[in-house]
């Protein structure tokens, strides 16, 4: 997480996740009394405990998230006949460590930083003018735009650098581990903001005139 939530944050997130204190405690392997004290602000939990609680809340809140909600689009890619030099420039420009290789809307491979490095060591600068199909690796996994986010996380946890997202047979996005983490943080912050906004508006409507 990129922020330390307040006791009120924990309470709001728990309610947004639809969990009781007992349910949250059970999933996070802590006591219900600890959850109650954390929400009341009477105890400062260990960081490891707080992370475990937040992980449960994140998973509960993002259960309905789909691949299409997280993906980066449009996809930056190269064609098999494009030069290795072009692929390198695109990776540098966009800050990517890999690019899909696509021909006529069909994914045929992936060119990664490791592929480029090995080729440069093996063949020197001459490889820069060669087509990427000469050094590319296997294609990245392709999932549906409607795939559940937990399935995406499972795939990425197996050492895959990224997954491609397709809609009606056409690649429309790409997801990396960084995208998953960033999405979770943004989602949590957005939900907290909306909850507090509603509370402020409700308070204002009850202010005596």
Account of the protein in words:
With 209 residues, this protein is an alpha+beta fold. It folds into 2 domains: 1-64, lambda repressor-like DNA-binding domains (434 Repressor (Amino-terminal Domain), Orthogonal Bundle); 67-180, CBS-domain. The chain is built from 9 helices and 5 strands, in the order ααααααββαβαββα.
pLDDT average, as an integer?
85
What CATH architecture label of the largest domain applies? Roll
N-C termini distance: 42 Å
Kindly estimate the percentage of residues that lie in beta strands according to DSSP: 5-15%
Order of helices and strands: HHHHHHEEHEHEEH
Spatially, the strands of the biggest sheet line up as 3-4-5
What is the CATH homologous superfamily assignment of the largest domain?
A: CBS-domain
The CATH class of the largest domain, by name, is: Alpha Beta
Q: Write down the Rg.
A: 23 Å
The residue ranges in which pLDDT falls below 50 over 5 or more consecutive positions are: none
Chart the SSEs and their pairings.
Layout: H1 7-16, H2 21-28, H3 32-40, H4 47-61, H5 67-70, H6 84-94, E1 98-103, E2 106-112, H7 113-123, E3 142-144, H8 149-156, E4 162-167, E5 170-176, H9 177-205
Parallel strand pairs: 3-4
Antiparallel strand pairs: 1-2, 4-5
Helix pairs in contact: 1-9, 2-3, 2-4
